[in-house]
Amino acid sequence: MALKSVETPPLRATGTPDASERELLERIARSKDQAAFRTLYGSYYQRLSRLLSRMSVRREDIEEVINDTFWVVWTKAGEFRGASQLSTWIIGIAYRRALNALRRAKIRPVSDEPFDEDSISVMSTDAAETDGQWLALGLARLPVEQRMALELTYTLGHSCEEVAAILDCPVNTVKTRLFRARETLKQVLPALAGMSGENS
Amino acid sequence: MNPRIPDTHAEAWAMLPWLANGRLQASDREWVEAHVSQCVECRGELDAQRRIATQIHRDNIQRDVSPNPGSEEQRSFNKLWARIEASEAAAPAAAVVTGGPVSRTSRTVRWLAAAVVVQGIGLALFGFNALQADSSHFVTVADAPTERLNAPAVRLVFAANASMADINTLLTHQGLSIVSGPGASGNFTAELSVDAVASGASADSVAAVISKDPNVTFAQPVAR
């Protein structure tokens, strides 16, 4: 069998992101539209890569998780009822697949290493670089559920209700996870949290 | 000093991340903003959360170190698409169980589809074993195991920037059909059609031609 034609580069979606993406999903469900599928894949590839990387999913597993996620999108497109945002549905699938990948790889998604302030570069005069190092250390100390709540809120800009849908937990649990994440980060990120008054 | 109702403060405090990212529901935003405007502690925390959000954004950009993300994405999509095609080719094979008398041609097509699935599973197992193996043990494209083939075939690797349209054109012109792939090395196996063989094409001749195509980085006849 020859590979079927898929338009590249992907089509550009129009209108609001969710409306455009739903239109693409309807085309996939209705007529197995390959171009629509390619476009939807392209619009999620980068953000899912970032998110999975933050979850400590191994680099070699990230592609597999993304493709497993879009395998579900391709086969279940007609079953999406629109009760939530499409992004919530897709990212929720990826999150659950990633948890499975972490379990298979026997990866503990939280660092057990004691926090070492000396590992922050004392030579760096670039405040942004130093902040980035603090942040990386801080995030590594968070349990994956807290890290994801933070990432979904601040990087992907989801509402509390959407984060709850993606992580499949009550809204109050999301608030609690983020509350704890903020407390932990504040201990690790004095400059960012404005505790020291420097670098603000 | 404004009297602070403890519960209001605690609830507003919990919602600050969504005030910071602009996704607080309108009904909540009104009272949370009203509280923050009067609460020094919450204003400081809101400011801190905004800085953390900015830093996470910045850090994400710095982590995007892939030299060619578009190519990586396309390669990844190609793998998924090959998997979907193999699965959809297998679907008719499953229908054999429920069908009545079938023609010889139909049986052949279904058998071939089932063979593709078996080959796919074999290649997947091969890929898994390769990943598990010591990284010092290299398996080259040419070393990939030979599948059970029904016609002369070539093993090939497409260029990272080759579009699906280019690949389709190339395969159609040469009378090739993908029967398995991508393998652990990103290689595909393609068989020559009956018509192509009848017109004198061989695995050697086709491999020689397509190896010069800019959309192909590797092509070799498969020994049968």
What report would you give on this structure?
The complex is a heterodimer of chains A (200) and B (224). With 200 residues, chain A is mainly α. Chain A is built from 8 helices and no strands. Chain A has helices at residues 17-31, 34-54, 59-76, 86-104, 127-140, 144-154, 160-167, 171-188. Chain A is globular. The N and C termini of chain A lie far apart (60 Å). With 224 residues, chain B is of the alpha+beta class. Chain B has a 4-stranded antiparallel beta sheet.
Produce a short descriptive summary.
The complex is a heterodimer of chains A (200) and B (224). With 200 residues, chain A is mainly α.
Number of helices of chain B: 8
Helical amount of chain B:
55-70%
- Terminus-to-terminus distance of chain A: 60 Å
Q: Largest sheet of chain A, described in full? A: none
Secondary structure topology:
The complex is a heterodimer of chains A (200) and B (224).
Chain A: H1 17-31, H2 34-54, H3 59-76, H4 86-104, H5 127-140, H6 144-154, H7 160-167, H8 171-188
Chain B: H1 6-20, H2 26-38, H3 40-63, H4 69-95, H5 104-132, E1 153-158, H6 164-174, E2 176-180, E3 188-192, H7 194-198, H8 203-210, E4 216-221
Antiparallel strand pairs in B: 1-3, 1-4, 2-3
